[in-house]
Hints:
382 residues, alpha/beta, four-stranded antiparallel beta sheet, three-stranded parallel beta sheet, 14% strand, disordered N terminus, binds pyridoxal-5'-phosphate
Amino acid sequence: MTTAAKIPSRESAAQRLHVVGTGFDVEKIRRDFPILSREIRGKKLVYLDNAATAQKPRAVIEAISRYYEQGNANVHRGVHFLSEHATGEHERARRRVQRFINAPHASEIIFVRGATEAINLVAQTYGRVHVSAGDEVLITAMEHHSNIVPWQILCEEKGAKLRVAPINDDGELLLDEFEKLLGPRTKIVAVSHVSNALGTHKMFGPIGIGVLFGKSALLEDMPPYQGGGDMISSVTFEKTIYNKLPFKFEAGTPNVAGAIALGAAIEYLNRLGMDNIAAYEHELLAYATEKISAIPGVRLIGTARERAGVLSFVIEGIHPHDVGTVLDQEGIAIRTGHHCAQPVMQRFGVPATARASFALYNTKDEVDVLAEGILKVQEVFA
Ligand SMILES: Cc1ncc(COP(=O)(O)O)c(C=O)c1O
């Protein structure tokens, strides 16, 4: 019997309309992402590495080129037209982020490079003030390195202890164990919203921009992270008075184009509707889970009931890097390795996984292509 016979059959054309809810038409959405029409190695690109970085819609790409073609200037520092305009756009993007995450105040939105910088900022400011010898920082066993290492650095510096809440074999947090680890010495709890190795989401904004949200009272209480321009209100050699929020935490020239394009990404997502996107991605993940897990020799890593669009898997007897290399020849882009989550790999007893991660522009056809690619991998290494 061929392995292909065990894969659930392809859907009918009618079932493949890829329309979920009113106005969510994936074929139309795909046209918003220029890179998706590329061919890779003579094959149609099947981009399934969205957990590493999602592709960018034309609205985001155009926001960046418009800024550099028409609006480039440094912000907050000039009285000339372009500087004032760039400042206005930068702050408009901040308000867009505020509304998107439903934050009470725009001043609670700090622009950073990404999640890594945001976590280091909190560890080095709030952490340094509030964590002392004997205190504890609580994380979970499914964290990305960026939510482990900054706390290790802090704990080493302060003589504090890093505690790790365990997960079960499906990759779910054991809440009872988590609660048991909460105690009077717990000063910080740092938990990722979704594990990137076992299930994640991305925003379609440009690389190199991210956001830290903090409540005003906490941010006011924290010392600055980096010193330099923009984060000051006045400087003398004797004393520096720091700027108000959010600028206190934004030293130096910010990524103005990135912030503006992040605002464009938010506008794009809002137009499509987050509920529609979530429904579509869940449907796609359910289809992919059924299809890929039905292939003999494939084992999914991370089978939690509540998951976002990530399918991590290993194929019996074949190293994940070899899986990725053969799939690449088919134009299929997935990620292989430890996904910056080595403790997660250790927990599941694997050195690495192959990871297909989905976004709103992926289709069931592409899942089928992935399934066929996996069969080809198995043939090559048979
Ligand atoms: C769950 C999770 N945490 C942290 C990070 C680190 O984010 P960044 O590389 O933007 O700093 C990532 C990146 O993919 C992630 O998926």
